[in-house]
Amino acid sequence: MQKSCHKLIEAMSTMLQGRDFAVSTLQAVGIGLVGASVLAYNAVIIIYRLYFDPLSKFPGPKLYAISNLPYLFQDKILGTWVKSTTTIHAKYGPIVRIAPNRLAMDGSIGWKEIFMRRPNLPEFGKSTEFYGVGKLGIFPVDREDHRRQRRAMAHAFSAAALQDQEDYVKGYVDMLIQRMQNHAAEGKVVDVTRWYNYLTFDIIGELAFGEPFGCLKESDYHPLVAMIFGGIRAQASQCEGFHRRRQRDYRHGAFRLYFPHHAHARGLSAARSRDTLVVRVGGRDKHEINKGATVPACLHRGNLANLPTSFGDATADFPWVRDCWEIHPPRLYQWATYHNPTNFADPETFIPERWLPEAHPLYDARFESDNKAAFKPFSAGPRDCIGKNLAYAEMRLVVARLLWNFDISALPRQDNWESRQRIFIVSDKGPLMIKLAPRSI
């Protein structure tokens, strides 16, 4: 009896082991099938993207055509993507595939094909990845809304308005120079990037809200400005400080003279126009992005006899500033355009003489074939930067005043300042430490 029970137990154990083996086998087969399916699916995706996708006809690195990871890692993590496009364009040409669903186009052809008006064709859609799903402000709206808003805002940036704004801008430039003179007298080292930002936000605060942010006065960022640099785009209605400024009807702000009347006349509410201005400040307006680019003009002193001496003169052509924008273009991939030797001779070198007319005594024939039409630091077409005239005047005046008043030298280990910068939505310039010495005039 015991032997029978023992045999029965052995038989049942064998059956259970067989069942467990079968289950394990089925599990292994299932896992294998899932793995094979995943591999097959990805293989099909890779083959499709490389050979059958509509973008497969465009050249570019094969790995970039297969996956978004190389682009995303360089763009979102390292902040080196914008500069990497220079090498990609040099190898593959003016139109390259940089991701499964992305193309990069050199400005020599891209400005016309993407940004200019295209007869009988609609505008390209605005990327929700960059602008978000909401259509707030002047940038992401459709063509008709943009035209209406821009028409209402244009009066605040006209030549006449620029003259009215002269005293405001000059006053803050004077304050900047005074602060620099104090530092020079005390032998202090100056982070010029930080001081340029102070100037920019004080001017925008004065013109938009009738009250500066007080950055120059306090020698520090206003809390709201600090939030902007931290990546926070605060809505005006959520911020008590901005709300108080709204209720003052801009007090004596220069833009107040232009927005209320023209905004209503063009079907744009005052609140909408104010929101647009706040978005411009919160988004670090393009001319602020370029502000750090005036530094090379100070470190590579040019012909001081050509410096403007007044705000009016500063709005005239001043080629020493243009070469700076090759270093800090305000939009992605312009870096590649401006550093492409096909477009510009010796593009890696700061040579402002490239912009001089042929009649100028310092004209250099080496740059005769430069594709100057590809140089558009404020974008192009009907959506180019509405504040570019103010930006031009401000930057030229600042550079002229700095060069007129100071001898400027960079501290050791600052030579690679540009190459160390990372670029995300805007350029993360980092500190540029310089030393100022009063200049004998």
Fold and architecture overview:
- The chain is mostly helical and 441 residues long.
- The protein has 3 domains: 17-52; 56-105, no CATH class; 142-438, Cytochrome P450 (Cytochrome p450, Orthogonal Bundle).
- Helix content is 52%, strand content 6%.
- It has helices spanning 2-52, 62-66, 69-78, 81-92, 107-115, 128-131, 143-153, 159-164, 166-185, 192-209, 215-218, 223-229, 240-247, 259-265, 270-282, 286-289, 295-299, 311-314, 319-322, 334-338, 388-405, 417-420; strands at residues 95-99, 102-105, 189-191, 406-410, 422-423, 427-428, 433-438.
- The protein has a 3-stranded antiparallel sheet with strand order 3-7-4. Strands 1-2 form a two-stranded antiparallel sheet. It has a two-stranded antiparallel sheet with strand order 5-6.
- Helix 9 packs antiparallel against helix 10 (192-209), helix 9 (166-185) runs parallel beside helix 21 (388-405) and helix 10 packs antiparallel against helix 15 (270-282).
- The chain crosses the membrane at residues 21-51.
Distance between the termini: 121 Å
Secondary structure: helix percent = 40-55%
Broad structural category: mainly alpha
Overall residue-averaged pLDDT value: 76
Q: What's the helix count?
A: 22
